[in-house]
Amino acid sequence: MMRFANANHFTVDLEYSKNNSSEEFKETRSRPRFIGEVIEIVKKWRDLHIHGHRPWKKRLNLQEAAKVIGIPKKSLDDYYCQLRLGELYQFDFNRNFNKKMRVLRDFVSNYKPEKQQAKPKKHN
């Protein structure tokens, strides 16, 4: 078993085994993240993209910024999308700051906008 870790405490365990001629890699998930933690991670990721990284003094694309953070870009994109939808749907981030991301995901997936009152059509 090999274990990789980075500065953000994101760990990945890879188990290698041979079954006849096939090779399998099993990746275990990291612990669930809290909303406040995700906000900070996404903020750092976007800041690296916009303002660049100090040692290189150049602007990074989102993929490069994700490598610096140490979290896959796909995950960061998903977090960013969930945060934007939560903001659009008026999710209470202050009240749920220390809750897990599942709370935000459930809120976004169960959100049903209030029906707007139908305006009467004008007849000519």
Task: List the defining traits of the structure above.
single chain; 124 residues; alpha+beta; three-stranded antiparallel sheet; 4 helices; extended
What does this entry look like structurally?
The chain has 124 residues and is of the alpha+beta class. It has a domain at 32-110. 41% of the residues lie in helices and 15% in strands. It has 4 helices and 3 strands. Helix 1 packs across helix 2 and helix 1 packs across helix 3.
Summarize the structure.
Helix content is 41%, strand content 15%. It is α+β, with helices and mostly antiparallel strands and 124 residues long.
Topology:
Layout: E1 2-5, E2 11-19, E3 22-27, H1 35-51, H2 62-69, H3 73-88, H4 101-110
Antiparallel strand pairs: 1-2, 2-3
